Amino acid sequence: MFSSDEEYENSLRDAAFWEPYARAPLRVADLPDEGEVVTHFPTTHVAALVGSRFFVKLHYEDSYGEQCFRTELAFFRATRGRDLPIPDLLAEGSLYDDDDWRWPFLILSPMPGRDLRSLGDTVRTEDMERVAVFAGMVMRRLHDTDVAESEPLAHSTYENLIADRRAKAELDHVAWRSLPERLAETIRDSLWQHRDLLDPESSPRRLIHGDLHGGNIFVAGSPGALEPTGIVDFNDAMIGDPHYDLVSLHLKAFRANKSLLRIALDAYEWGPLGTDWPERMMAFTLAHDYDMIEPVVSAYPGVLDDAGPLEDVADLLWNLETPGAGGLR
After folding, report:
1. 20 to 30 Å CA-CA from 299: which of 53, 180, 237, 259?
2. What is the pTM assigned to this prediction?
3. What are the angstrom distances between the C-alpha of 17 and each of 73, 107, 162?
4. Quick one: pLDDT at residue 289?
5. Confidence class of residue 137 from pLDDT cuts 50, 70 and 90?
6. Could you tell me the pLDDT band of residue 63, with boundaries at 50, 70 and 90?
7. What whole-number distance in Å separates Cα of residue 158 and Cα of residue 166?
8. Helix ranges restricted to H, the chain
9. Buried (b) or exposed (e) across 4-40, using 16+ Cβ within 10 A?
């Protein structure tokens, strides 16, 4: 039991604390549990590498643990045997059978290398360009993967998400304070004005990752010669609009670097963007389940202090014909 979210989050840095819990699923699944335990941080659910053969994920109750477990399990079952650079699902189950929290778990094959986010500013331009090519190609393969819709991996999940975000986005952005308040207070009207651009009923239905940021892209090698190895973490997978996946990739993994986005789109073979591209992508940015403005203002402090209306922010972030937040096209 944890007294607060902060206490739980801090515990994730403590591999010694989580070691017995990380080894327990292996014993439940009748798998060897020897080797050092290394926890992955930051993350929402407990994620630990045990030795060199197993990656154990324990889903935490207070972070929609059961829902995330069922979504991720459904994703791995639906994509088994497909040509995707993702971990293999080796076993699943729970630590307990009683009426209290059962601590559901997944045992996965480890992804080679390290997550891109953990390498920070040591990653070089040529590394990021390779990541952009890889991300574009993998997204296309993921989005083209044909899976049977069923709960929780269903289009209804995406429909409910967009409806919920349209209702809550303005209040959330006011609270998050990444956007200047004068802009955050115009989000409700903006999303209503552009509602057709993110309407689930008229948008494509594809298998999407839901949160493809740098912490979920793995690379191997040393800076200057990094090679992408795969993607992880499918808690937020669903059947939805491919545009949704571009938001976290561009604003979090690429730090709003438009040249990297262009490389990814070319590798994806996205096709013509259309004249409403900046407005469409800004609508998805504002309606995203997470604060997607914060990575931009963290990377470029003050960049939005004197920003004009949301249409100007849309151009700054998404118009590939104009300079971006970092001054690059």
Report:
1. 237
2. 0.94
3. 26, 19, 38
4. 93
5. very high
6. confident
7. 12
8. 5-11, 15-28, 65-79, 125-143, 155-176, 181-184, 187-193, 242-248, 258-268, 277-286, 294-299, 310-318
9. eeeebbeebeebeebbebbbbbbeebebebeeebbbb
Contact 214, 250 (CB under 8 A): no
- The string of DSSP codes covering 223-254 is TTS-EEEEE---TT-EEE-HHHHHHHIIIIIS
Count the alpha carbons within 13 Å of 320 in the hemisphere toward its beta carbon.
17
CA 205 vs. chain centroid, Å, equals 18
* Residues 207 and 239 sit within 8 Å (Cβ to Cβ): yes
The tokens of 131 are what? Answer: 């990541």
Residue 116 main-chain phi, psi, to 5 deg: -60, -40
Domains along the chain? Answer: 5-108 (3.30.200.20), 114-318 (3.90.1200.10)
Distance CA(39)–CA(185), nearest Å, equals 39
Tell me phi and psi for residue 58, to 5 degrees. -110, 125
Provide the 8-state DSSP code for 311: H
